[in-house]
Design brief:
By secondary structure, this protein is α/β, with parallel strands linked by helices. It is built from nine helices and 14 strands. Strands 4-3-5-14-6 form a five-stranded mixed sheet, with helices on one face. A five-stranded mixed sheet has the order 11-8-12-7-13. A two-stranded antiparallel sheet has the order 1-2. Helix 1 crosses helix 2, helix 1 packs across helix 3 and helix 1 crosses helix 4.
Length: 300
């Protein structure tokens, strides 16, 4: 048996069941009672089953009619969701986009993504807050938060943008005047610059299946990765940096890689946003752009 889905019939029948009468259903659909009655009668003839029990004073749904009502309601809801999702995708982003990110990653990476997004969508304005505190994006009206590291359990939605990868680096001047470095154990004879926001400075270095812990006291301990990079550029020792931060300096020859393959494990980066059924076009568009930008700007 070949069945043709008729959404008009479904809508009419659902209205009759929901409203409890042909008259009320006709008013809801802005048509006349006779037309609604004809549609339901045609449905029953096509299906070969009675959907409604009718009397002069009462209208009730048969068992078959109740089953059809539930299935038709699901089908219409899915169709409406599909149309809404497409509309959300093709709608032009506009309005204010509020973004938050960590201070360092924000100024070094997210700024560029925001600029690219505003150039692409002239009807969008942006507000950015770069802070290392955990922003409550719901109560503070933030559209997208860029977060580095494992996510806390929450009712928010998240999309992984990629991973930060790391390496060990030092200035050529430092390396020329220091002992050679062939193994992790050789680091004991070197000056280290460690990013240590809290607790005892230490590095956990991984190379494939091998893991080494570096516990020695650093020459410099700082709570800011940009400061650690600057100290390494000054020739004060070996530093561990995200590759996106070290890359430009390696390219221009002011930093050089040390112990290739050894570094901390990669750190995930997510775009976090309010959990909603349909994303605002500006939020969807910005998250998509961040993912593309991460692949070209950060991983490389």
């Amino acid at each position: 048996m070949t069945t043709t889905v008729d959404f008009t019939e479904m809508q009419a029948f659902i209205a009759v069941v929901t409203e409890g009468s042909f008259t009320a259903a006709a008013e809801r659909l802005e048509t006349d009672k006779a037309r609604i009655s004809r549609i339901v009668r045609r449905m029953e003839e096509k299906l070969g089953a009675r959907l409604l029990n009718r009397s002069t004073r009462h209208l009730s749904v048969t068992e078959v009619g109740r089953d059809y009502f539930e299935r038709a309601s699901s089908i219409l809801a899915a169709a409406e969701a599909a149309e809404s999702a497409v509309a959300q995708r093709i709608q032009e982003p506009k309005g204010r986009l509020k973004v938050t990110a960590g201070a360092e990653f924000g100024t070094m990476q997210v700024d560029g993504w925001i600029a690219a997004f505003l150039r692409k969508w002239p009807k969008v304005t942006a507000e950015a807050e770069y802070t290392n505190r955990l922003v409550d994006i719901i109560h503070e009206g933030v559209d997208v938060a860029i977060r580095i590291g494992p996510l806390q359990d929450s009712e928010l939605s998240a999309r992984m943008l990629g991973e930060l990868t790391y390496g060990l680096y030092a200035s050529p001047d430092y390396l020329r005047s220091a002992a050679s470095i062939r193994t992790v154990d050789d680091l004991k004879r070197h000056d280290l610059i460690m990013h240590a926001p809290r607790g005892r400075p230490a590095w956990t270095l991984v190379n494939g299946e091998k893991i080494e812990k570096v516990w020695q006291a650093p020459r410099c301990a700082v709570n800011n990765t940009v400061a650690a990079r600057n100290l390494a550029l000054s020739g004060l020792g070996i530093v561990q940096l995200p590759r996106y931060m070290a890359g430009p300096h390696v390219a221009e020859g002011t930093l050089a890689g040390v112990l290739p393959g050894w570094a901390r494990i990669p750190v995930p980066v997510h775009a976090v946003f309010a959990s909603t059924r349909y994303m605002d076009p500006k939020v969807r568009g910005f998250v998509d752009l961040c993912r593309e930008g991460f692949g070209s700007d950060v991983e490389g």
